[in-house]
Amino acid sequence: MRRLLSIIVSLVTAISFAQQPVELPLWPDGAPNSSGLTGEEQETRPHFVTNVTHPTLTVYHPEKPNGMAIIMCPGGGYRGLGMDGEGYDMAPWFCGQGITYMVLKYRMPNGHWEVPVSDAEQAIRMVRQHAKEWNVNPYKVGLMGASAGGHLTATLATHYNSETRPDFQILLYPVVTMMQVTRGNTRTALLGKNPTMEQIQKFSAELQVTPDTPQAFIALTSDDPSVAPYHGVNYYLALQKNKVPATLHVYPTGGHGWGFQDHFKYKQQWTQELEKWLRDGVVFPENPEPMLRIGKSYLGTKYVANTLDQDGEESLVIRTDAVDCLTFVEYTLAQALGSSFADNLQKIRYRDGIINGYPSRLHYTSEWIENGIRHGFLTDITAKNSAHTQKISLSYMSTHPKQYKKLADSPENVRQMAEYEKAISGKVVHWLPKSELPEAGLPWIMNGDIIAITTKMPGLDIAHVGIAEYKEGKLHLLHASSTLGKVVVSDEPLNHMLNNNKSWTGIRVVRMSHSKNN
C-alpha cells in the first residue's frame, strides 16, 4: 500500500510539472533546407497534424531530473504526425522517472529526405547545447520514434556524426527498411516516386548497422497490418550481428499505432519493460569520447602488418579483424565520423579521398595528418600548444623499395612515391619532445586524441600511432602492438614507452574535428 501511495504521489507531481512544457522553435533563424511545402500546418483529424513547415521541440522538465533525456519522434507515414498518443501523452510517465522528455514536431519530407533528418539532428544538438541549463547529461540523450518516427530514429542511429549520435534508441512498431513498400507508402513520402537503389539501401537501417550503432529497445506486435514485424525483427538481428546491445519485445496482438493508448492490451507490459530497460538495461560508456569508445571495442584484435597490400589494382581494403597501428586508428576514426564507414575510410586513407594506384595511399603519417586537416576532420593540437617545430624529411620508401610489395617491381610507383616525398619534405610541423611529456600527460592532451610518435630514423617521420587514454591519472596509449600481437592499452604510461625506445623522439597530437566531420 505504501509503495502504491508513493507511485500515485510521484505521478501526480509529474503530471502537474509536465503540464508546463516549453515549445521552442527548432530553427529560429530559418531552416537550412526546404521540402517545398508552404503555408500553415493543418489538423486533418484530431491531434494529427500535416503540412508541418515550422518545426519545434516541446520540452517537459521533470521535478527531479536524473540526467537522462529522450526526444520523441511521432509517426504518421512521413505525411503527418500523431502528436498525442505518440508524443505529448507520454510526458507525465517519462517525467515521473526523472527523464527530461521532448516531443519533436518535424517537417514532412515531401520526397526530400534531408528535411526530417536535419530536424532530428538539430533537436539532438539543441539538447546537448542546453544540457547544463536543462540538467541533462549530454552523453545520455536518447532518440525515440514510432512507425515512420521509428524510421527517422533508426536513420539517425545509423547516419550520424559525433555531434548527432544518439546515446540510445527506442523504437515502437518502426518502419526500418526501404527495400519493401509499406502500407501508406512511407518510402515515396521520404524518397520520392523514383528512388535509386543507392538511396533505398542507404535508408534501410538494417543494412547500415555498425558496432557503434546505439543500443536499442524495440517493441512491436505480430499482427501489425501496416508495418510488418520483419522491419523491427531484422533490425534487431542486424544489431545482434554487430554485437550492439538490444532488446526486442513482440506482443501477439495490437495492430499498429498503439503508442501510449490505454486500449492497447499490452500497454502495461511494454511500459514496464521500457522503464526497467531505462533503469537497468542502458549502459553508458565510462568515457563517451567517440575515438576512445570505439577504439576500445577493438581491444584484443589481432595485429597483422601489410593487410592493405593486396594483389591486383589498388582498392579500398576493409579488414577490421586484423589491423596494424595505422589501420586501427583509421578504422576507429572512420566509425567515429559517422554515416558511411567506407566513404569515411577512403577520404582518411587516400590523398583527397581519390584512389589512383598504390602511391595515392597516404603511406606517411605526416601527409595522412595534413590530408585530414585540409579536409576538416582532423585538428593539429600540437600546433596550438607546443612551440617546438621540425622540418619533415621523407625518403625512406623510395630509397628502400625492396621492403614494399608494390614498389619492389615497379619503377613507376617508386618514381611517384619520390615525388610525393619531395612535395611534403621541408614542411615545418609542431611536435613535443619526449623529455617534455610527463607521466601524467598534459592538460591539452585529451582522451581519444590521436598520438603520432616521431622518430629519428632517417627518411621517416612517424614510427607508431595510437589513441590517448588516461588511467589512474597517467597518460597511456591504446594501440595495435606488434610486440604483443594485438590491440591493447599500454601497461606503462606513454612517457615510459617513449623513453624506453631510443629511436622515438616525441609526439604529435591530432584530434578528430567535431565541428566538421561528416
From TrEMBL:
Signal peptide from the UniProt entry: 1-18
GO biological process, one term: xylan catabolic process
Matches recorded under SUPFAM superfamilies: alpha/beta-Hydrolases, Cysteine proteinases
Origin superkingdom: Bacteria
A Pfam family reported for this protein in Swiss-Prot or TrEMBL: AmiA-like
Keywords: Carbohydrate metabolism, Glycosidase, Hydrolase, Polysaccharide degradation, Signal, Xylan degradation
GO molecular function: hydrolase activity, acting on glycosyl bonds
Domain (Alpha/beta hydrolase fold-3): residue spans on this chain: 103-258
Name of the protein this chain belongs to: DUF1460 domain-containing protein
Organism per entry: Bacteroides xylanisolvens
